[in-house]
Design a protein that fits this description.
240 residues; alpha+beta; 4-stranded mixed sheet; 6 strands
Length: 240
């Protein structure tokens, strides 16, 4: 039977038996390459006892299930984003008749997915439906998207910036930053990057905010030469 998990690190400790002097740390991936490498390096690697080996396999299976559940939750968030739907409702309790789109989607997925259904019925620590989890999913999905956009911006030859003003639900003014560039498929794309709260809508304030974002994305001075256009809306300098 193959080794059930990938050995990620080992610490050599003193001992009489060199083959028994390793402490193991395991990841959650099913892989035999690390085990084979250790055999080549040390000739003989101590085998795990059967109970511990089964415990590792069970732990890996639990992690696989959690990843599957998390992927379904992310799919529900992506669905809401694709159709510009608010995730949260005013009352997200179990008894609520209108818990919000996200909770409704999760309930629908559980009705057609036995793994998701069992998770929602039996989970005591993490169900993935709370407002905190929804907000954290949104935050980390945005971070991953930004990282992808930054990589594309650093690899493109030309890019343009767009800035516009809008107000949030609390009527606070915030600036919207959008980048337009040519991607790796030679197609022109526009990508929303972030919101930024501004003290006013003056040209100096908007330009300082844009420069701050550009300095973070393109730290090298030579990279800023790829910026070929800027466009604004609602800036004071454009209103007059």
């Amino acid at each position: 039977m193959g080794f059930a998990c990938c050995v990620t690190s080992m610490i050599l400790v003193s001992g009489t038996d060199p083959h028994a002097s390793f402490m193991w740390c395991f990841t959650l991936e099913h892989d035999t390459k690390a085990y084979d490498l250790l055999v080549q390096m040390h000739g003989k690697v101590p085998k795990l006892n059967e109970a511990y080996r089964k415990g590792v396999i069970k732990h890996n299976q639990e992690i696989d299930k959690n990843r599957y559940i998390l992927s379904k939750s992310i799919d529900c968030v992506k669905f809401c984003g694709a159709f510009e739907l608010a995730l949260q409702g005013h009352d997200e309790t179990v008894e609520s008749l209108n818990p919000g789109v996200f909770r409704g989607l999760v309930d629908f997925v559980s009705s057609v997915d036995s793994v998701m259904e069992a998770h929602l019925k039996n989970a005591t620590v993490f169900k993935g439906t709370s407002k905190t989890i929804q907000n954290e999913l949104l935050y980390f999905m945005l971070e991953v998207t930004r990282e992808t956009i930054v990589l594309q911006l650093r690899s493109t030859d030309y890019l343009a910036t767009q800035a516009d003003d809008t107000t949030d639900v609390s009527t606070k003014t915030q600036s919207v930053f959008v980048f337009c560039y040519i991607d790796e498929n030679s197609e022109v794309v526009e990508r929303f990057y972030c919101f930024s709260y501004l003290k006013d809508s003056s040209a100096d304030t908007i330009s300082a905010a844009i420069l701050n974002e550009l300095n973070l994305i393109l730290p090298e001075r030579s990279a800023k030469e790829k910026l070929i256009a800027q466009s604004y809306d609602a800036a004071s300098v454009m209103r007059g």
